[in-house]
Amino acid sequence: QKEVEQNSGPLSVPEGAIASLNCTYSDRGSQSFFWYRQYSGKSPELIMFIYSNGDKEDGRFTAQLNKASQYVSLLIRDSQPSDSATYLCAVNSNSGYALNFGKGTSLLVTP
Amino acid sequence: DTEVTQTPKHLVMGMTNKKSLKCEQHMGHRAMYWYKQKAKKPPELMFVYSYEKLSINESVPSRFSPECPNSSLLNLHLHALQPEDSALYLCASSQAGLATYNEQFFGPGTRLTVL
């Protein structure tokens, strides 16, 4: 079973700060990387995906991928209390169909 | 429109009941998935349908029976469940069946409680 590792947190940041969420993966052949946000009691919501090395920005979110280091991160700028949620990192499996999920990082943005 | 719908939102059933969960998407996606998620755990893949054919069954007990009547609909038939099957059941869809370069979108889920 290929592994996707995330710090479970909670990661606490003040409102307006940058939240940095990290994820490492063990399968060097992985090609697709996804970040999902999940509020308590709700379903996962896709917020970012990245397929190439480097940065990808969408609004307040930036995904960063470094395949050499097998590392993907999510930056949330100008964090808001509404960003408080669990963030799941997911990586395509080598079987092709499945996503391997990390256990998620709990983010708490304090006013 | 990136909406996947699921019914019912909540379901309580006894161990001898038979019930079904339903999922629908109108995004033209050709792959649909069932996941199970327990509290404070990530989603676990159960089944994958690609082009209406079952592509993956992750060694799921036979008390869970999936069905894909057409490319927009996915059902999960439940029979003789155990209390430990209580969880959030998530449906997802994607344009194609491979996870590579292929985003999966989740529905709101069905919260299942087995008494």
A few lines on this structure:
Chain A is mostly beta strands and 111 residues long. Chain A has no helices and eleven strands.
Please provide a written account of the structure.
The complex is a heterodimer of chains A (111) and B (115). In chain A, strand 4 (33-38) and strand 5 (45-50) form a beta hairpin. The mean pLDDT of chain A is 94. Chain A is 0% helix and 53% strand. In chain A, strands 2, 4, 5, 9, 10 and 11 form a 6-stranded mixed beta sheet that branches. Chain A is mostly beta strands and 111 residues long. With 115 residues, chain B is mostly beta strands. The mean pLDDT of chain B is 93. At the A-B interface, strand 5 of A face strand 5 and strand 10 of B.
Reading the helices and strands of chain A in chain order gives: EEEEEEEEEEE
Overall body shape of chain A? globular
- Quickly count the helices of chain B: 0
Estimated structural class of chain A: mainly beta
Mean model confidence by pLDDT of chain B: 93
Low-confidence stretches of chain B: none
Which structural category do the helix and sheet elements of chain B fall into? mainly beta
Mean pLDDT reading of chain A: 94
Q: How many strand elements of chain A?
A: 11
Write down the oligomeric state. Answer: heterodimer
- Using the alpha-carbon principal axes, give the shape of chain B: globular
Secondary-structure element string of chain B: EEEEEEEEEEE
- Share of helix among residues of chain B? under 10%
Biggest β-sheet description of chain B: 7 strands, mixed
Q: Strand count, sense and closure of the main sheet of chain A? A: 6 strands, mixed
Helix content of chain A: under 10%
The most extensive interface, with participating residues per chain, is:
A-B, 23 and 25 residues
Question: Alpha-carbon distance between the termini of chain B?
Answer: 36 Å
Which radius of gyration of chain A do the C-alpha atoms yield?
Answer: 13 Å
Strand content of chain B: over 45%
